[in-house]
Amino acid sequence: MPDPQSKTVTVVGGGLAGIAAACALADAGYRVHLLERRPWLGGRASSYEHPGAGEVIDNCQHVLIGRCTSLIDLYRRLAVLDSIRWYDRFTFLTPDGGPPTVIQPGWLPAPFHSTLAFLRAPAFSLADKLAIASGLTAFMPGLPPDTSENFAHWLQRHHQTQRAIDRFWKPVLVSALNEDLDRISVHYAAKVFRESFLLSPQSGRMGIPSIPLSELYGAAIGYLRQRGSQVSLRTSVESITPTDKGWQTTAGSQTYASDAVVLALSFEALTALLPTLPQIPGTQNLADKLAQFEHSPITGIHLWFDREITDLDHAVLLDTTIQWMFNKSRLQPAHRALSEGSYLELVVSASRSLVPMQRQPIVDLALQELTRFFPALSQANLIKATVVKEVRATWSVRPLLDPIRPTSPSPWQGLFLAGDWTATGWPATMEGAVRSGYLAASAVTEALGSSQSFLAPELPASGLMRLFP
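The chain above was modelled as a monomer; its predicted structure follows.
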């Protein structure tokens, strides 16, 4: 078997997919050169210093669930797993000031571990609860195939009440997949609910970083350098050309020779790079596939107040434009040290209606809606606010998109693809990105003669769900 230390791999793109591929290959003994055009690692999972605020904020709140085993594996590699705070209690608030609905696991075995909490939930009527139970039961045996049906139609076909849709199916799914119900694949909608609510209590618990995202993923720089690999930031790749010994990647006046290249790029960045690659059979087919992907936006609304607004760490806000409230003063202790008041981040997924709006109308809308849930806000002073729009936050998880998602091997020998949009079996998530990086790393090792697998084992089902495949 060839010695991995004699082989060099260039990874283009320092998002989660590129970080995962680079770290896996470095651990396997390959000499890796990671190139990233930004001045930080993490891609869309990044942080920046708010002008004049003296605080570092995340571009958008990122969360994971216990089922994200490869992402958790990456955190363990980077020694940042202790920076993830885990929650198994979810609070749903209604704008009428009614009692909160708390969903958490109880003593019953899976898939019934949250049943007692649902039975007590004041946000839903008995008809709503029966409809939700019936809908979730449909996913117990396994995931339905990816067909042309969208999830909004599936909900109608399964006789879901309007309140069940508005207060359960929609807030959970739009937040998880960043897309509207009438544009979501039934297959991936089922995956979200099956793995978050049915498989096991551990599968659905939510993890939230307690440090800024750029700090979380910036740990990969030291990790790679300690293993003899290199990280080059502010490095924009202009072309990739084949050589007698492999590939040469050109970025400005710098060239990087390697035996293999992993293109860990967004689908639009790869589209822009395609004309520089050799035009061989399969090139146009890949370009045609990339052209079928679309984006969906996320908007983060960051608000600083002169006093505490709520003692909740996070909450789902029902019947409003805003879907989630994250209390960053409690979630990231560094913010508490910098301010005597409170700092909240509000998240609006699939935020197409907010994209054309100016900052102030969005802030005004957020304050108006937020006051309905937290009366203390009416006595508070807003110190500062900012709005972050990620117009290209994720790719749209549309029906029948799975067949066109490319696998890691590309049409070019020695060139491999990674990104959450590739064929991972996961939707547009951090877990999907990390899995794509691990799959690309495995494909590299197979091509270079030292086949290895990097995907973390799946989290097993528990209780009665062990009876289902």
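The first strand starts at residue 8 and ends at 12.
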